[in-house]
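Here's what a typical entry looks like (Chemotaxis protein CheW):
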Amino acid sequence: MKLLVFHIGADRYGLPLAVIRRVLPLMALKAIPLAPGSVAGLMNLHGAAIPVIDLSRSGGAPAAALRVDTRIVLVDYRAPDGAVHALGLLAERVMGVQDVDDEALADSGVQAAPFLGRVAGDAAGIVQLVHPEHLLPDALRALLFAPAPMDTTP
């Protein structure tokens, strides 16, 4: 399995390439008032407002450092109802693509966060899978992907 490897603090994580649409450079984000801390803001991608989640904050760490290698990873977020939405993930220290043998992946034995999956070790340490489909709790998903209100202006 091919993973895009990035860091949260000193720890390495990987997103399966199959869920990634694009990897974008860091860009200005519009704040969402009263949104939870894990929401970094909205990005404007060709006129579309796309929510961006800070993976560091979602993982319980301080906000992602804004470095030259911090990226916004645009993924296909598959909601429980089957709907697919564009979702940006703010990822610190994106290292590139790494090939991980599926058989080398093992259960971590720790259920700290529902979006974290199996782990694999190599010479650089441990890399843990991130499953974007489990990243958003129900209330946050409803906030970010609420149906647009109908315009009733005459």
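The longest helix spans residues 138-144.

More examples are in the samples folder.
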